[in-house]
Amino acid sequence: MNELQQRMQMKPQSNIPNPNSSEMLEELLSSTPARIGVWRSGTRPLTKDMLKFRIDHASAVDSVYSEVSQQLLQQYPFVQVETRYETRENYLKRPDMGRVMTLESEEQLRKQCIKGTQVQIVVSDGLSANAIEQNLADVYPSLLDSLKVYGLTVGTPIFVKGGRVAAMDHIGQILEPEVLVMLIGERPGLASSASMSAYMCYKPRIGMMESNRTVISNIHHGGTPPVEGGAHIGMILKKMIEQQTSGVNLVI
Predict the structure, then answer these.
(1) Domain residue spans in the chain?
(2) H or E element: which one contains 154?
């Protein structure tokens, strides 16, 4: 078990002296990773709480600016492509550039990827490379096993560097899969910098409405367990193909 998983499993504690209802406070603490029950020294936060806040904030910043390691990506048969984001600073300021593939990547997708498959899997760093580092090894095999059980064919897996969610639309336009799932790092908060989301869509195309996407969020060891998340994604993709729809029109 890594350090992140150990922290997630630590029982939350409150520093509030003599609360009116200890049971209610304990129930609240167990229901959320948010900062509940922090106390103060005079008008200021306790030193240990302030240091914990700064550690978590630094972890979130690192997740945004770091990159997924090639050592991890080389363990999988990904075709690696990029959006037009150019730099990480530009990626944060210009979300639109993370939605469009470079011309070189477009050509790479056409040459190296299977077109018209039932399921297309896309992975992207998004706003948290740490989410991919921490969860991919559990989510990806579980998803493949689930799709195999349902008898669904899978295309060439893709990794997108500097991707936003709508990059799936551009990829869908090029490869025309029946359904596409993008596993992407979520915007890191101060409770977890390792949260992954799975965005799914039936026949994604450029210009599609956001209401046509189906999403599972908070996939990490302190939220939706990664192995369970991968299996659940496979079930949802099967329903999309059966119902020929996604988003608000999908019945799960």
Answers:
(1) 70-249
(2) none
CB 229 within 8 A of CB 198: yes
The Cα–Cα gap between 8 and 6 comes to: 5
Q: Residue 204's closest CA among 249, 246, 158, 248? A: 246
Number of Cβ atoms within 10 Å of the Cβ of 29: 16
DSSP structure string for 75-110:
TTTPEEEEBS--SHHHHHH-GGGGSSB-HHHHHHHH
- CA separation for the pair 147, 191 (Å, rounded): 31
Q: Does domain 70-249 have CATH number 3.40.50.10540?
A: no
Q: 10 Å Cβ neighbour count for 13?
A: 9
Q: How many CB atoms lie within 10 A of CB 71?
A: 8
What are the beta bridge partners of residue 235? Answer: none
CA distance 59 to 223: 18
Give, for all 252 residues of the chain, the pLDDT tens digit.
Answer: 444 445 545 556 777 888 888 888 888 887 777 777 788 888 888 888 888 878 877 777 777 778 899 999 999 999 999 999 999 889 989 999 999 999 999 999 999 999 999 999 999 999 999 999 999 999 999 999 999 999 999 999 999 999 999 999 999 999 999 999 999 999 877 667 789 999 999 999 999 999 999 999 999 988 899 999 999 999 999 999 999 999 999 998
pTM for this model (two decimals) = 0.83
